[in-house]
Amino acid sequence: MKLALITDLHANREALEEVLAHARGHGAQQFALLGDFVGYGADPGWVLDQARALVEQGAFAVMGNHDAATVRGAQPTMRPTARLAVEWTRTQLAPAQLSFLAALPLTREHGTCLFVHANAHAPAEWEYVLSRAEAVQSLQATPARHVFCGHMHLPMLYHLSGTGKAGDFAPVPGVPIPVLPHRQWLAIPGACGQPRDGNPAAAYAMFDDEAMTLTFHRVPYDHDAAAKKILAAGLPPEFGQRLHDGR
Q1: What is the DSSP secondary structure assignment for residue 170, as one 8-state letter?
Q2: Which superkingdom is the protein from (predicted)?
Q3: For the residues 183-212, what does the mean pLDDT come to?
């Protein structure tokens, strides 16, 4: 089965439309949505409706930190722009859409895979996988052979051998990588809705559990249109500028 891994959608309709079309065009048979459906972008309702439709068709989905904040409301410790985005998003969502977010689990398992937004060792604390050390901590916390998470917005792949030897590398888009089960793997597909590696193209990855390969992809989309919607909605201009810069 070819499984498309999409994370950090961030209410970006234009990016998600292109990623879904690209994934289906490359044979995706199922989807895993790794959280942060909302936040930053101007189309939270549309993105959630797409996510709900995919889940009804069997997709896996987990909660992200922006989703959790939207469910519970802005917290005093948040930055002013983050609080504004949370409260604006809450005004855009119907009760059924908020209920969908609230019901999302922190983790999902399927076969050799664990799906989680931030990390496997403390999913509810939203700690980032910043380096090999955090990746190893996550991999040692689960028997899953393939851990897929988001949160970092940067495409990355880590691995851990049975003897405890760890490695990492930045993937090249479009190049299949063998991810054989004699090692554990932690993959961060990169952000669909708000890339931050200097490349504004939307990111996602495709896991083929028969060939045991993982392919990272970048998909151009109309980030100018998405940025203009952010400004029109009255959201902080920096959210739109990030789409242009990919940072």
Answers
A1: P
A2: Bacteria
A3: 95
Whether residue 96 contacts residue 56, with contact meaning beta carbons closer than 8 Å, is answered with no
Cβ atoms of 48 and 97 closer than 8 Å: yes
Tokens of 147: 């851990």
Longest dimension (CA), the chain: 54
**Does the structure show a pLDDT above 80 at 104?**
yes
Is residue 151 classed as helix, strand or coil in its secondary structure?
Answer: coil
Which pLDDT belongs to residue 190? 96
How far apart CA 137 and CA 139 sit, in angstroms, is: 6
Q: What is the pLDDT of residues 128-167, one digit of tens each?
A: 999 999 999 999 999 999 999 999 989 999 999 988 899 9
Residue 151: closest CA among 110, 192, 113, 184: 192
Residues forming a β-bridge with 146: 113, 185
pLDDT value for 33: 98
pLDDT band of 216, cuts 50, 70, 90 = very high
Could you state, in order of their start, the residue ranges of all structural domains in the chain?
Answer: 2-245
Closest C-alpha to 70, from 6, 9, 150, 138: 9
CATH architecture observed for domain 2-245: 4-Layer Sandwich (3.60)
Q: Is the pLDDT of residue 3 over 90?
A: yes
Instruction: Quote the CA–CA distance of 244 and 173 in Å, as a whole number.
Output: 20
What is the crossing angle of helices 223-232 and 237-245, to 10°? Answer: 170
Using alpha carbons, select from 160, 60, 38 the residue that is nearest to residue 107: 60
CB 56 within 8 A of CB 125: no
Q: For the purposes of burial, counting CB atoms within 10 Å of the CB of 30, is it exposed (0-12), middle (13-18) or buried (19 or more)?
A: middle
Asked if 54 and 23 count as a contact pair (C-beta separation under 8 A), the reply is no
